[in-house]
Amino acid sequence: MADGNRRAVVTGASSGIGRAIAVDLLDKGWSVVCLSRSRPDIQHHGMAFTPVDLLDAAALEAVLHDVGAVDALVHAAGVLKVGRHDAMSIGDGETMWRLHVECAARMVKHLAPAMPDGGRIVLIGSRVAAGAAGRSLYAASKAALIGFARSVAAELAPRRVTVNVVSPGATDTPMLRDPSRAGEPPKMPPFGRFVSTEEVAALTGFLLSDGAASLTGQNIVVCGGASL
Predict the structure, then answer these.
(1) Segment 58-100, tens digit of pLDDT
(2) pTM
(3) DSSP of the chain, one letter per residue?
(4) Residues with catalytic function
């Protein structure tokens, strides 16, 4: 199937990694349904935008019902709230769990059954899923995403629907520069620069391509050497 005949849902498309992924897919000829609270600053005939707060379960379910069948799902929406064990916010942890894991589950439950055989699902995780000081609740939600993805991948393997996680290290996004995380600043990778959103988008695009048809249930880390 040519890229021009394919249709994807991308969350968090208004900025950062989600926006870069949407642009990359549009450039490759995909039709992209962008789900975010604000409209992406993307001008392309292949883009459709539906405003939605992903944390509003009823609103998300309604949007997914209207989206119809798609060939791919990319869940890139995310939020990072930092805090050491003695100062972390349980409320922030609940928000991260709901956005990263619960929303992924809702979308997979609704969209995967109608995907054609050979469909693709990519969830954006994080290098710190293995644990990092000051990021315990964020890491926990991203670690859960990996377990979720691998379980769903096993269930969908007979249909050749692949499910993978792309886990970036510190990436040059507005979230990275958020003043509220000044107490827990990101560490510069050995490469001497942060990961670019375009690099994450390129890997995601590959996972949606024919060349990645046999790659499923994997967590792929993109970190500029930070995990070495």
Answers:
(1) 999 999 999 999 999 999 999 998 889 988 899 999 999 999 9
(2) 0.91
(3) --GGG-EEEEESTTSHHHHHHHHHHHHTT-EEEEEESS--S---TTEEEEE--TT-HHHHHHHHHHH---SEEEE-------B-TTT--HHHHHHHHIIIIIHHHHHHHHHGGGSPTT-EEEEE--GGGG--TTBHHHHHHHHHHHHHHHHHHHHHGGGT-EEEEEEESSB-STTTT-GGGTTSPPPPPTTSSPBPHHHHHHHHHHHTSGGGTT--S-EEEE-TTTT-
(4) 138
